[in-house]
Amino acid sequence: RWCSERLDALVKVLPEPTGSEKLIKLVKLIQAYTIAPGTLEQTVALLRQAESVVQGEIPAELLARMRTIRDAIVDSLRASRSEGGETEELVRCVRALRVEAKSFKDDGPHNAERLALKMAHDSRCDATARKLLDTAANWSRSGVPTFLEDLRVLRRKLLLALLSTDRMEDTIPRTRTDVLNILGEARDHLDQRRKTTRDSAGDAAWRFHEALQSDPDAVKHAVISYTSVFAATCQQSARQELADLKGSEGYDTVVVDEAARANPLDLFIPLARAKRRIVLVGDHRQLPHILDQKLEKELEDVLVTDSTVGQRTSEMLKISLFERLFNDLKRRQEKDGVRRTVTLDAQYRMHPVLGQFVSDQFYAPYGEAFGSPLPASEFAHTLPGYDGPAAWFDVPHSQGAEKPGQSKSRPVEALAIANELKRLMDSPEGQNLTFGIISFYSEQVKAIDSALEEVGVVSRDESGVPEIEHPYKDLQQANGRIVERLRNGTVDAFQGMEFDVVFLSMVRSNTLFDRTEAE
Asked: What is the pTM of this model?
């Protein structure tokens, strides 16, 4: 994708092809012709391509000689094609003559008889040849014929007699000296011209364009050679392949993104490679770290004899290493005044009303409140049926309750979301916006996929996996970049992502709670 984006940008600003670029193209044509010359028709096509490359770059006399050679080949092709159809048919019959035991057993006698009839009065087929063809035509035994080698010799002899020199050149690919010489002259002239009129910037741009287009591996190796930043997952950071690319296993600085979600053992892997500095980036007030629930249960069972220890262990397991370090470093700062933690004090992702809500509910109680500097006008929309930045979309219990289970779902709510989503995405006001659907339950994600399929936003591939249909899948932004237009998933699937409009599926709708008693 990166190469494609660079190519699109380059094409808009590339200068006219320079002499160097045309020389490279001509050299490639010569190399291709030398390695695989092809038939006469292919040679004519190659000469026409070469003419388009060198047009205006070589003397008119040299270009005229190139065209003369090409026209001569075209004339010879016309002459060979104008020969009688009878000869064409005879050549096909000779080629069909079977000279291998397995193929002769199939239709050898039939093909030999057909050729014998065709050449019954042809002077190029003498009495010995006719007798051989008659023997082959009348062969009916089950063994391997003893005359197959004689048939092979006869076939070759007849082809040499029937195919003229021009026809043989048309049939068998071979390089022509006159073609190589004229292309070589054009190449030498372009090379001499390049040396006297060099356009370094243009040459570099075209060479870069060629590398992006035809050699992505070279681009990858170039990036690796000049980069000072390497990226990997926590566990992949220990792979020998990455160390080989870098040239060592250590790094001056290690930055771990989403560090609050990594469990201690995973987090220690990249941290052990830091030489001078560690930067952990994350937010323990959002999603908890990934914890193996089976392992947690086993530990609780082991410690069941001591409920206090078991409870304490369970509580500690639920606190990420990131959170422990964050709190510990804040306590150290209180003692020595050295700042070791930083919390962001401004967000630019969402409408200030939404930002204020998040700040007040989840961060302000810990002294980590943040502001929303961008004005509300930056997030204005004209979606039909919605005025502000947030709204409740009511799907009352009377329409259908949730489905019980370890992971819950509510199909009626899923279908309501699917219909409303499609309405907004199809509207003129929503065609340039991205949409997300978030749920707390994996079963609800599946229910929403089914509902989206029902309204024509999603289809299933051969293996039954849901795929978002065009034009709901991607969106081309004003800057030309292609982005994901729709995503449906759990909270985990949206970590670190952003969409213009998000549906939050609450799912829960039941009669387990008596509202009157609560009041």
From this structure: 0.54
